[in-house]
Amino acid sequence: MKDCKLVVGSVVLSKKGRDKGNYFVVVALNGDLAFIADGDKHMLISPKKKNIKHLAPNGEVLPVIAQKLQLKRKVFDSEVRSALRQFNQPSENNQ
User: Fold this and answer.
1) Which end of the chain has fewer CB within 10 Å, C or N?
2) pTM for the whole thing?
């Protein structure tokens, strides 16, 4: 696992649970819990609560989304979906 610190706007990979293998963006942190959203199943209005030890940060931060979240500005689910699309795409070799 990479030794990356989680911050709001970080892109993370779920390691456990039903959503294992999917990428999310961290929208809030509270102790050992991260609130994550993908803009589709887990929207920004009701993010998924997940233990941070079940997440693997990939070292990427989405700067525009992070800045909007920190300034308490409106972030649309479509922005999150669009930003995460590059991470969730299956590799071209598997097709």
Assistant:
1) C
2) 0.86
